[in-house]
Amino acid sequence: MNLLQEYRSKLVSAEKAVKVIKAGDWVDYNFVLSQPVLLDKALAARKDELRDVKIRGGMRLTPLEVVEIDPNREHFCYNSWHFSAYERQLSDRGLCNYIPMIYRNMPLFYRKSLEVDVAMFTVAPMSSDGYFNFSLTNSASKAIAEQAKIVILEINKQLPVITGGQEEGIHIREIDYIVEGDNPELPVINPVQVSDTDKKIAQFIMREIKDGSTIQLGVGALPNAVGTMIAESDLKNLGMHTEMLVDAYMTMTRAGKITNTLKNINKGKGVFSFCAGSKDLYEWTNDNPALISVPIDYANDPHTMAKNDNLVTINNCVEVDILGQVTAETAGSRQLSGTGGQLDFLTGGYLSQGGKSFICFTSTFTDKRTGQMKSRVLKNLPLSSVVTNPRTQAHYLVTEWGVADLAGRSTWERAERIINIAHPAFREDLIRAAEQLGIWRQSNKHL
After folding, report:
1. Domains and CATH numbers, the chain
2. Which residues make Cβ contacts (< 8 Å) with residue 393, sequence separation at least 6?
3. pTM over 0.85
4. Which residues carry out catalysis?
5. pLDDT tens digit string along 261-276?
6. Which residue among 260, 315, 349, 358 is the one 20 to 30 A from 389 at the CA level?
């Protein structure tokens, strides 16, 4: 049987494909832009036939039919590796559970611990040699497919083909069913507006970046501000090694700042694991020889990324305490996003020769309920908060008031440095809190 014949033999409607799913099955939707649309709708239509179908996904950018059609969660139970804004809203409604993970472990979870009855996700059209490119999501796509008893692919011609570093696609012989249909436009993430405070924080980080540095940016206004400043700077010959490819990398590359020529590994190539951003970004990635997609256990391996000298990693957080503990994913017991790869890059940036890892945050926020200004620097993280970055891995914390280098520092040194970058209106209270905890020396300067 030739490839075209095999393709036709496996081509079915979405409605027929989801008939393989049984009550109690674990179904995997994969991650971000690989998650199915047609198959999700077809599975939702089977609601009354099924109970307790458990689904994994993550960073969903458009509504999930299986969730919206089942408000009492009797038929489908959705679980997310990393909350998008939509999934955060689902969680608030009791319709989504978080799956704790350090991102680099995601493929290992599938290969070592997880059951997958049916995997169904979206891919680019088949190549002439029988491969389907995983396109904008290569985090654990191959690992999911290997573990699944049944693999169903939904074809979307809107998806670009991404040059692969490894595990970037799957052959037709490894799948069971193919579904074609409408090719919906890919959802986009609009750039977050950058505030004056964000720009102040970005300016502190810009002082620490040198020619030839390799850059990792997280998602959000602060990393975007840094990317914009780099594009407008005199820096040159920068590299890219990141989990998430965002618009800022395209901006920096088009400005001639990113060349990847001085990297020690993957020289000449920008490395990423998944991509989400603008339509222009998606078009830029298509068959772009300057980019390679890799699974997340490669992109986020601290020892791999640290082979690049002067690795600078830049990520956001929600709150910190005066011990140096960081939460980047919760507000008290409320799950906001996920651990993701923040701890991976915090570790890798510090391991890199000349490397630096920055966790950024505005020193205050306005409470939406009361209208009061509150500090993001606290005596203790709130009850039930999740520690994303333990104090033992702390490196640089950055606010609009400055930079605190915590690596290797004692408890009293940490307290002093962290309080020094808190908003001045809260520093006296934080000093008293440090005294209560026994981590404030009489010789500490009075801030």
Report:
1. 20-179 (3.40.1080.10), 196-436 (3.40.1080.20)
2. 343, 346, 347, 350
3. yes
4. 243
5. 999 999 999 999 999 9
6. 260
